[in-house]
């Protein structure tokens, strides 16, 4: 009810039947002014400590990676400095391990704070890594009734990131700096760990008779009251002087650096595509996911700046999760960066991977941060292991160029793009499909789904690369080549769809085996060609509806294959687990083909993952059986965060910007109970746009206008409405405008196009008999199995007086859907509608579905048939 109350004044005005454009514009302007006075994007998440959960604090040059108990390891890329950093509290004659007293965690984009509480003291430990510095700061705010002292302990682990090595290393205590000094024989790589108040150092040692790995120092006693202590970690690849300079800078200027880092994230959130959504959880997840993607930008002093894949602690190894550079990860993430208007980092990421393109045109798969110290590109099997990175690179460059309008980049990279295309063509088999066997893996890297000749996924991205290259040729003025490539794309598209389609089962094969036979293993990977709209709607929708069932879709996302498959394992990295990446692919594809129930369930699953697990971040991979990450998962995975952003912007909102054509399209499939949303900072070249959407019982109002720039551009608005709804008229600034209605299998879209320059534009769509259903899914308890409702299909009678939902749910379970305009329903079969006699306003959204008990089928299917009144008279609903 909160969402409806917040929009009630606007709704009441619209219900009077007197629509005055100036009045609505005034109201929206006033609302915007009121919101402008509120603090925006003040992101902060807090919860009781989960000691096992990953806790990352990262900058572009350094990172602290640990867990919520406060144990950390420190990196200044590509150098690992220490591990097992932890605190000990000395008070009342006892030494207390800090992790036993960790109570509350609070995370912000720029820092994370753990609250430790004892009987007579509290300590707030804030971990902070400046955005651009080669080091980290740990702030300790103490409040105590009794004499109290903190000891900081750690294991020196001074080594380069895998697979490089430093050889012999050493440490010593530098009294004048009050810090431990770490060095190596060439005196090039150096680190300092200390504090302005450090004393009583205890150093690691090794003798013939005993040894100790732990080093420590104390921070000075606090007798009573409040006091702040400071620990500083600094590294350098250029000798001792560089490390000492950074160490002193962090020590003296940490407060200013903390403010600068907070402002860095605030500015980023304010200048990229900003949303104001009625769902607070999805709002938080969207904002945090933009932060998470930004935190994937890493500067390596030897390799440059690019996107890493993710973060996890390395323990005693030299591999901090996936904190090295990946080609295909960068490409998938760049699509989300482009959608969110972060063109600078998207370009940087693409520039980085293009530097390491192989001579034959193949794009890199992974680049270790220690690559420059070894013969990485020729001596190891990993750098060019994947086949999909090459077509994805072409797709990503095109997406960047279209969204940003940076045609110069297309010209600059044309040689690289041609080489990539030449390599792609060199992998074609005798039928003309790009191969994986002998070339590199597609998506699947190992396990029982292999070997195959080519995946549907790989062939799909190969076909889309042709369309992307055709557009890039057009942008660079090569019309003849563009037309040739466009024809090649259409042929390839047909070939791919025909080669993998299994007509009698109405689904696509996972792959073709080495004999060219279709591998009938239905997989979420089929949604990647659907993301790009390659299959026809007639083929895509039946497969989406199969993937929406309980054997593929869990409450926390999409399994790679069905749990009914003989090769399925819930812990199988590539044969049963749930990847947020897959979930995002599925959501965007499902929205493209108007399958909004599974699309929103998948979107919401990824969004809620950002607020669970490692707070503010989305994990790499989860069990396909139970809601928990795999034990090998990287808890802060960058493309997983991207798969919160893309499903929201590209999927649910249907936001597409073409800066070259100065055209923006908005095709929202928002939940039926959403009455508003806003989109700011949509960039079209020199222009930026603001979009406000409002929905009432009478229809839809879209307010838009340029907030900067003055070049004429066009807006195409195509909102989804119920097949039952009727469009009475469409007005732009109070005057009728032409429109079209496109009918799909489960919805219809009103299509309106209009140019805008300066000023504000108000588009009103008057509707009659609008109707909708929505579901508010949730994550289960940690370790639990799936129990959520699956809405598999929605079909309507030709006369639009009857709608049938096919759903599946846990045998004996009861589920509720929210109803927009429930008075449209005359009667129901297979469910009940509760209008809530005592409180109609609170309960009128509840359509209740009871799943029958079953001993043979854990997730039975049920059909719910809704009958609607044939006229405007409201019918009586069925009783629960």
Average pLDDT rating: 92
Count the beta strands.
53
Strand order of the largest sheet: 1-7-8-9-10-19-14-13-12
Classify the helix fraction into a percent range. 25-40%
Would you identify the regions where 5 or more consecutive residues have pLDDT less than 50? 1-41, 837-844, 873-880
Q: What is the strand content?
A: 25-35%
Could you give a short account of the major beta sheet? 9 strands, antiparallel
Number of helices: 19
Pairing-aware structural class of the strands and helices?
alpha+beta
Question: Which descriptor suits the 3D outline?
Answer: globular
Radius of gyration (Å): 29 Å
Distance, first to last CA: 21 Å
Quick overview of this protein structure:
This protein is an alpha+beta fold and 880 residues long.
